[in-house]
Structures
1.
Amino acid sequence: MTDLSARVTINGHSIETSTSRSLLEAVIDSGQPLTDGVGCMGQGVCGSCRVLLRRKDSREVTTALACETAVEDGMQVSFLDHLPMNRHHTYTTNDWDDTWNLLDRINSAFPEASHCRHCGGCDRACPKHLEVQKGVNLAASGDLSAAKVFDECIMCNLCTIACPEHISPNHLGLYIRRMTASVMLRPSDLLLRLRQIDLGVMPVDPNVELT
């Protein structure tokens, strides 16, 4: 990759940097203070370096993760602060031992999931390019295959911000993934190994280095 000088505007500040750097590295190099919305080292979770960006000679504003987006000359970038959910979803995992009344449970915890307008806003907002709308629709119909759609979700909340129906697709996805893990059968060898560890037959030494 050719290392070229580039000037970008980040959070209103013009920064001279290099095209070999990521947007997050450019912010750190510039000496700008890291806030809770900039970098996983500030907020402690993946997805906290979410940004809105516009490239040179383009009117389109897109979403991205600063840690995996390379600097381009003329970029305009704005880091997004942490935005809490519009509503909180309360549920228990204690009774997730089968798929009986599965759809009723999903509708009870996330009643807004069935209100999807199919506008595609969540898909466009996702910096990981997941098929978020598809996952929401599958979950709303009681289809646990929705869990696969959200496997790489980083909980950045951008899909939630984009949704006009105030659905929280990332949290719905987390709910479905938890439910799937609870009701699906585990591999027999995994169950045996966990049982051996629990009985002390196969002790785990935390000081042993993995090779």
2.
Amino acid sequence: MRTQSVVTVVQVSAAMHKEIDRKQNTEVASLGEFPPEYLIKHPLQNTWTLWYYEPDRTKTWEESQREITSFDTAEDFWSLYNHIKTASELRQGCDYSMFKQGIRPMWEDDQNKCGGRWLINLDKKQRTTDLDNFWLEILLCMIGEAFNEYSDDVCGAVVNVRPKGDKLGVWTSNADCADSVMEIGRKLKERLRITSKTTMGYQVHKDTMVKAGSQTKNTYTL
């Protein structure tokens, strides 16, 4: 399936899912009421897994990461997304992560350890204006394979809800592949409509793991 067709399917299935939800919420609907195309599930190129992190002092960080569910169709993505809390509704200190199946949302995973992340820092005011839109757009970019020939290099994404400001990160598998990292970053900045006045930085996981202070130096910037 071509990249553009996957993106289109994700967008079209969103409209279909809204229509099905509307009918189900207003009346008892039978399958015969829906056009055939509304009942067909559209497969994604990859299976994706949603993770949820909630801090718990009785558990390690890894133990607090909960694998929620996996999906491999556009319709199942929307069914999941429409029935969970949005990122802005999460309690402070909590995370959502969405990664390709088999990849854990941690630096040490074999698919992540040589990579890094494009990091977007939001101020507190942006939680109500930008956070949910940015997070959804990132998810659609990933499951819709919007990064063209570099989509295979995308591992997943994380949203951190924090008191001082929220963070969004898109993780890639190889920090040394500059062409891939930069193209993914450019596409991300374009889709999120981040202006040229705002700098977006790419941090290598190995640097983040050994950082001495609270800041990690950006290896790439856009």
